[in-house]
Amino acid sequence: MTTKEQREALRRLPAVHELLKREELIPWLERLPREWVTRAAGDAIAMGRREILENEAVRVRSAAELAARAVVSLRRLTEPRLRPVLNGTGVVLHTNLGRAVLSEAATEAVQRVARSASNLEFRLEEGVRGSRYDHVEDLLRRLTGAEAAMVVNNNAAAVFHVLQALARGKEVIVSRGQLVEIGGSFRVSEIMRESGGRLVEVGTTNKTRIRDYEQALTDETGMLMKVHTSNFRIIGFTEEASRHELATLARKRDIPFFEDLGSGVLYDLKAHGIGDEPTVRECLEEGADLLSFSGDKLLGGPQAGIIVGKKSWIDRLKKNQLTRSLRVDKFTLAALEATLHHYLNPEEAAREIPTLRQILKEEGELQSAAEQLAERIRGAAGEALGIETVPAHSEVGGGSMPGVELPTHCVAITPRQISLTQLERRLRQAPVPVVGRVSQDRLFLDPRTLEEDDFSQVSDSFRYALQI
Ligand SMILES: *Cc1c(COP(=O)(O)O)cnc(C)c1O
């Protein structure tokens, strides 16, 4: 039942045609077909109507308020939803924030092929049709020492492709300690089922020996598989079969030994005392026949799944029907090629690839960066925030190198006039959103994942959040 006041209030709401005459909406009528502006005005009025019907206290929105609301929804419709964010979390490969940030050269390479026609599938020397994979295969071979390489959409697709092309209808032996789930619903057991491979689990969660694989071999065995446990780590009383042992066993049966390496490093981070991940080259030297890894994890390139290994197996993968449906586009190939070029000179890779540069930042550098950032935010916020710098830890993220803590210095912020939740939310909603980490009743910003050029933007976003 509507009350008399409500009926009265509903009558006072403006009509769509009145809103459309307001000057706030005129530029929108010039920019968009009338239909979209009419709909935005209609929605704004409908919302006003609902407010009247649902609330006891009746307050009629003015035409100006409703027009402003329509403008907000038209802006939302026309502005990019996918946009840059400042990552202050200290998680270098933040899956929710787009994982690896591309190098300048990789970004330019993408723009170049986007703006123009390219030789994506055309051999310029001979003037005949070529393969899109040729552009990066040679580089991947040189950088990893593999006989052959191919690239698909992401590493999940790479694993699926290898299994369905080489092990469909056959048994695939995997250690129980490696039957993991990786963020975003990638489960080894389910990928196996989808691909048509039959999972044969061997060993126990903490210990699997080569004997366990040997005993599980049958005439139906089509593959030995090793999976990087990524974001999960078994410590203590553990044992696993070595790559060399698995490779030797696979060779005896003439079946492939495939390793899902997850991240896949081309730059030797362990030589800098960071983690203990073997490089892709080392894994191949230890005997893996086929390896797959992501393009946008530790490699620091675009989203992609890279498969390297023995030519005979890779040739079978390339010929498979599924290859077409997993193929990468020209932007990915352009970014990947430019990223791989950096690796020809490891010093250049460490300098130019943001993922590596951020992981390799040193504590002293981070301490002075944290102090500079703190100073900038103090300058913007005045007394509204309590600000200090504190030692802390950053993470590599992306399921790469679990348990590796990179020492850093953070700016720790305590809001004095609004709540921490409000500050955190308003920073997220700023025109250039800033995402930090909330811990111990403070907001932490880690300069490891910010560049110095970002600092003035960070302080602008603080001004926005504090409305000053
Ligand atoms: C990350 C990861 C995947 C999935 O790779 P995407 O490139 O994200 O598809 C698969 N396997 C392992 C072991 C991983 O760490």
TrEMBL record:
Pathway membership, UniProt: Aminoacyl-tRNA biosynthesis; selenocysteinyl-tRNA(Sec) biosynthesis; selenocysteinyl-tRNA(Sec) from L-seryl-tRNA(Sec) (bacterial route): step 1/1
GO molecular function annotations of the record: L-seryl-tRNA(Sec) selenium transferase activity
EC numbers: 2.9.1.1
Cofactors required: pyridoxal 5'-phosphate
Subcellular location: Cytoplasm
Domain of life: Bacteria
Catalytic function, reaction form: L-seryl-tRNA(Sec) + selenophosphate + H(+) = L-selenocysteinyl-tRNA(Sec) + phosphate
Major localisation: cytoplasm
One GO BP: conversion of seryl-tRNAsec to selenocys-tRNAsec
GO CC term (a single one): cytoplasm
InterPro entries with a match to the protein in the record: PyrdxlP-dep_Trfase, PyrdxlP-dep_Trfase_major, SelA-like, SelA_trans, SelA_trans_N_dom
Keywords: Cytoplasm, Protein biosynthesis, Pyridoxal phosphate, Selenium, Transferase
Domain called L-seryl-tRNA selenium transferase N-terminal: residue spans: 10-46
Annotated positions of the N6-(pyridoxal phosphate)lysine modification: 297
Record-annotated membrane-spanning stretches: none
Pfam families referenced in this protein's UniProt entry, alphabetically: Se-cys_synth_N, SelA
NCBIfam families documented for this protein: selA
Family, per entry: Belongs to the SelA family.
Entries under HAMAP family matching the protein: SelA
Function per UniProt: Converts seryl-tRNA(Sec) to selenocysteinyl-tRNA(Sec) required for selenoprotein biosynthesis.
UniProt protein name: L-seryl-tRNA(Sec) selenium transferase
Organism: Kroppenstedtia eburnea
